[in-house]
Amino acid sequence: MKETMNYITVLDFETGKVCQYDIGFQVNKLGWNPDTESCEEYLTDKGHNLSNCEWMCHKTNTIHHG
């Protein structure tokens, strides 16, 4: 069974910000499958320059401090 990804976290080097988006509604209610292409389109729509950021999808919004 595939694990549900509910968040996208972005390290935006252009703005110097870390952004986190709750995509759980789109995934769970609308049946969105957050594959690489659709995630990149989503982030571009949010104003991120994909050539100057890193991103990942994950299940929880927990941030671990080391």
List keywords for this structure.
single chain, 66 residues, alpha+beta, three-stranded antiparallel sheet
Q: Give the terminus-to-terminus CA distance.
A: 30 Å
Shape, per Cα inertia axes: globular
Order of secondary-structure elements: EEHHE
Secondary structure tally: strands: 3
The oligomerization state is: single chain
Biggest sheet: strand arrangement: 2-1-3
How can the largest sheet be summarized? Answer: 3 strands, antiparallel
Rounded radius of gyration (Å) = 12 Å
Mean of residue pLDDT values: 88
Structural class: alpha+beta
| Estimated share of beta-strand residues | 25-35%
Low-confidence stretches: none
Q: Level of helix content?
A: 10-25%
How many DSSP helices?
2
What is the topological layout?
Elements lengths: L6 E6 L4 E6 L1 H5 L7 H10 L7 E6 L8
Antiparallel strand pairs: 1-2, 1-3
Describe this structure in words.
This protein is α+β, with helices and mostly antiparallel strands. Helix content is 23%, strand content 27%. It has two helices and three strands. A three-stranded antiparallel sheet has the order 2-1-3, with no helix packed on it. The N and C termini lie far apart (30 Å). The mean pLDDT is 88.
Short description:
The chain has 66 residues and is of the alpha+beta class.
